[in-house]
Structures are given as structure tokens and as C-alpha cells.
Give the backbone structure.
Amino acid sequence: MNRIQFMTELAALLQDISVEERVEAMKYYNDYFDEAGEENEEEIVRELGSPAKVAAEVKAGLGEASSDAGEFRETGYTDTRFEQKEAPAYPGQEKDSDEAGGGTEKQQGKYTREEQRSNNNWDTGSEQTKQKNTGLKIVLIILVILVGLPVIVPAGIALICAAVAVVVAVVALFAGLAFASVMVVLLGVTLVGAGIACLIPEASAGLVLIGGGLITFVIGLIMTVASVRACMIVLPGFFRGIINLIRRPFHRRKAVA
């Protein structure tokens, strides 16, 4: 059994304890393997015993605060069997106490460099994953645009044409009302003129024409004022509504950003 198999089985056996305690226990034994070095992993596995035995000791340490099996400290779960032990010596390491002390400092420096290298590799992997995700999003957006372009462009053109047609129809409606009102006024003036011309040869016909012309003139004048007033009230509001409708998608994008 190698280190990976040991830690994987140990993690599976510790699923019934809390996440924090499981993380601390796994960190303790993972650090213990790191201190021993890769070349001594098999020896550490033999010393620790089976993952089931280690898991039982961890759970016993959690259940009994004063258990001899071990206890959790600030650095994680500490097994008392290993408190007096040091990591197995590396090949070629001197057993002399002074030289061993110097070797320990070198090992600590090596472990620190290895931890920094591991952290750097983790950061690099995270950045690469983010870059891959960003690239996938860009590709997905491009595909959506390419697929939807044949539908979006004609639909957009149709909507623009419909909006222009509505604007032209409204403007033409009010322009027609104003033109008709002016024509009614001109008709009234013409009838009044014709009635005045008919007063001498036939007074009754001239009076009828003059009366009808005056009535037509007043009606046309009222229609002209009403149509101009309606244009002044309706058209500005209509154009403001169209402008607000066009601006709404852009305002939503700014709000989301």
C-alpha cells in the first residue's frame, strides 16, 4: 500500500466524523508523510498500520479527551506513538546529534521550498482552469451568435421596419387631420365669397351661401385648432415613448454591469 491508497482509505473511514475534525486528522497524517519524504512512504505505512486502525485511533481520540491513543492540537490530530519519533533518516544522513540537527534544518528548508512549490503549482492550475472556463464561455457566445444570427438579423430588421411604419402612419394621420381642417377653412372662405357675389343677382342664394360659408369656416377653424393641439400633445409623447423603448435595453445592461 502506498501513501495515496493509505490516505484515500483513511478519508473514506473518517466520513462519519465532522468535516473540521476529518480535515485536521488528514492534514496531520499528510504532514507526517511529507516530513518522512517520498522514499520513506512505505516504511511510514508499515509503522502506522492499517488505515482502519488509524481511523479507530482518531475516533477514540475524539471520543475521549484523555485517551492515550492521541489528541487534537493546534497542528491537528497528534498520535502519542509518534511524539517521541522523528521522521526516518534519509539515505546518507549522519546519525551524529550535531550533524543531525543541521540536517533537520536543511530538511525543514527543503520542506518549506516544497510547500511553496506545491502552492505555486496549485495557483497555476487554478489560473489555467479559469482561463479554460473563460475560453469556453467565449466559444459558446460565438456559437450562439453564429446560430442565432440568421434569425436575429431578419427579426431586428422587421421590428425596425414596423416601428418606422407606425411612426409614419401616426405622423401621416395628424398631418392629414391638419390638412383637412385647413381645407375646410378655405372652403368656408370660398362659400362666403361666392355668396357675396350672388347677393346682387339673387339675394336669397347669396345669403344661403354666405351662411353656409361662415358655418364651414367656423367648423374648419375649430378642426384646425384641435388638430394642431393634438399634434402638440400626442406626437411629443409618442416620440418620447419610442426613444425610451429603444433606450431600455441599454439601461438594463448598465444596471447589470
User: Anything to note?
Assistant: The longest helix spans residues 97-198. Strands lie at 70-73, 76-79.
